[in-house]
Amino acid sequence: MAHEYLEVLERVPPPPSKQPEVVAELEAFCADIESFKQGRLTCYLVSGSTTNWGQEWRATMRSVARGYEHVLLRAYVPVSGLPVKLDLYDRDVLNCTELGEVRAALKEFLQRPNVRETIEVYAR
Amino acid sequence: MAPMRFRVAFINCHNLYAPGENPGRSQLDRAALITKIDGLAATLRKSAGGRAPDLVGLCEVGSRSAGEQVGHAIAARKAYHSIWEQPPVGPPDDPDTGIMILFDPKLFRQLGSTRTEPTYNEPRYHWLAAELQLRRGSGRSLWAVMNHWASDFRRGAATANVSRLESAQKVGEFYSNDACQTTAAMLLMGDFNCEPYEDPLTGASGTGRLRLKGVREHDWATNEGNNLPYFYNPMWNHLGEPIPLERTIAPGYNRYSRPAGTYCKDRDRSRQQFGWVTWDQYLVNKRLITGGPARLVEGSIRLARAPNHPSGVVSDHCAVGAQFEYD
After folding, report:
1. Model pTM?
2. What total number of domains does chain B contain?
3. Residues B224-272: tens digit of each pLDDT
4. Is A92's Cβ below 8 Å from some Cβ in B?
5. Any idea where the domains of chain A sit in the sequence?
6. What is the domain range of residue B138?
7. Binary contact (B182, A48; C-beta < 8 A)
């Protein structure tokens, strides 16, 4: 067998993209929430629908004690990685054109009282 | 760029059976059925501002083909896709009705499978849910849930109310436990067989934390800290007389600008119940009010009375239309 498809995949480089970095940032966001509550909840990324804004990623929390799940936020990441649309359950979706903006928006999100309250509820 | 809009309309089709399908509830011949279907289609278009709606909810539909004929009569060019769940098998001489959702495949794509209420020993299911993704704009999705909750007519008010409370519980649980995992945007529509202020919709009675709560003020539904199934009910604005009395008794006044409800009990004189009720409603949660995949344009809600054609009643309910903005 010639493995001609494998040859194509190895020869043609992937398009330049910041997608891995953006997804890694979202994974780090989830991991820190999980570390904060030390085993009382899990937090992970779930891939959602493919939309015109890009692939949907849902930062999802799960209560260890009760098993309830809650989608904390949704991020839409295009193939090129940027701009990221962050749906933080606010009145407008945030359009982040740089990775730094994504970081800043996620930090601001974690400081909101209702977000902190939700994390506490799911960690009970 | 200005936001785009899509149109939604729904109606209770009032025993939409093909000839001979249920002689006890419909005696229409083929010609009368066509007249009824054309009347339903015209009423739905009227409620959607004179244009073919992009999303249609139908209840009291006897069969898939009957419902699809309504879609064809609204606009053949739309080539609506239909979502239908066959009702449980009932007595052979009295098959029950189902619920149908029609959508324009050029605007929406269905994601995942269709969901209905568990029916247990019920003769029919009371809601049908489908997740629809917008093909244009952001491409995000919303849940469209067409409802037809239990009616007083066949089982009595007390028993039917218990069933409606159960439906409110099931819809709320479905929203919180299942629907929110994919998209938290949900549109409830249909014939709830109760008023906006009655318990099954207000959540005033019952103990279930996840019960549906239909609220009359925006703020209750838009509270970002509240993840319970609170839905804004815009139909509070459509209760009762639309025009102040002093204007209606002035010389030259000629009829209401809109009906005083969505269903008139005038035909049911034997039960000593008269007048309009608002049983046909839209309810939207915060993701369809302030943000999310689409926003309800509250001022676009229109009630349209079905024509009472001599060959039979097209529908005893109004069609209710609404428009939604999306980016």
Report:
1. 0.92
2. 1
3. 777 789 999 999 999 988 888 888 888 888 766 788 899 987 655 555 5
4. yes
5. 16-122
6. 4-326
7. yes
Alpha helix stretches (DSSP H) within chain B: 30-47, 64-74, 152-155, 157-174, 180-182, 199-202, 218-222, 245-248
- Tally C-beta pairs within 8 A across A and B: 49
**Closest CA in chain B for residue A75:** B140
- In angstroms, rounded to a whole number, what is the distance separating the alpha carbons of residues B118 and B124? 10
Bridge pairing between strands B4-16 and B55-61 = parallel
Closest-CA residue to B215 (of B228, B227, B202, B205): B202
* A52/B291 touch (CB, cutoff 8 Å), yes or no: no
pLDDT digits (tens, 9 = 90+) for B145-193: 999 999 887 778 888 899 999 999 999 999 998 999 899 999 999 999 9
Specify the 3-state DSSP secondary structure of B158: helix
Q: Can you give the CATH number for the domain in which B154 is found?
A: 3.60.10.10
Contact assignment for A114 to B133 by CB distance below 8 Å: no
Answer whether B140 sits within 8 Å of A113, measured CB to CB: no
* Least Cα separation, residue B121 to chain A (angstroms): 29
- Smallest CA–CA distance from A86 into chain B, residue: B292
pLDDT above 90 (res B139): yes
Q: Give the closest of B133, B141, B227 to A70, CB-based.
A: B227
